[in-house]
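mind reviewing this stuff:

——
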Amino acid sequence: MFTLHLDLRIHFVPPMSEHASGIVLTRVVEIPFAPVEGTRVFSKAFDECKEPEGFVLKDILWDVDREVFLAHTVLVNHDFPLTYIPAEIRNWIDRGWRYGSYRDDYPSEGADDDDGPDCEDTGATQAGELNEFEIAEGIHRLSWRQRSAGDNRVLRALIRHMVETYDNVSGAYAFDKTGRYFTEYEIRNRDLSDNHVNQFMDCCRQFETMSLDEQEKWRKRTQRYPCLQKLSEDWPCSAG
């Protein structure tokens, strides 16, 4: 048997970019053969898909010193309701995946950041006649005050994660400043008089013109926001 240390890189697009690092989970898999690039691995125990679609192995590497194979696989979720992200990550954790990467076993510079205190959130979600999923699908277009404290915690945690992983940082900045996020499709098909979209776009451009010191000051402020990993691991206890 061969030991495979497998990373699962999950991208929620938008607001994340599928070319960034995404949210990384990992696990150890025992396989009876040496994998090659493009090999698919499947198990009902760790895959949410009941049919054998499988995870495609990429960038396979044999660590001679440790006698293990290293690889990663990618999962892209398009137009996923943002406030459902911790629950989705928790679903993978319940299947035996854990936060982290096989790279954690190798020396690297830097240290873990302190989670920092959570920011205060106010307001309540305006449900109307929509069901829960319909509300979640459009919740990124609401302001901070129009959402519940729990939803705002999730979205601020997402902003912090995007900043820490350098994933669409200008979009994260605009999201943080306006409380709203708009996809490229929503921007292309916007009403030109829509002040909310225009404000979001202005903030994206503003970030690009800020000095490095100004950008760094804002980055440090986002460290006060909740940690997405902790929210996911504690879900649903942290949903309130």
About this structure: Residues 149-164 form the longest helix (16 residues). Residues 110-130 have pLDDT under 50 and may be disordered.
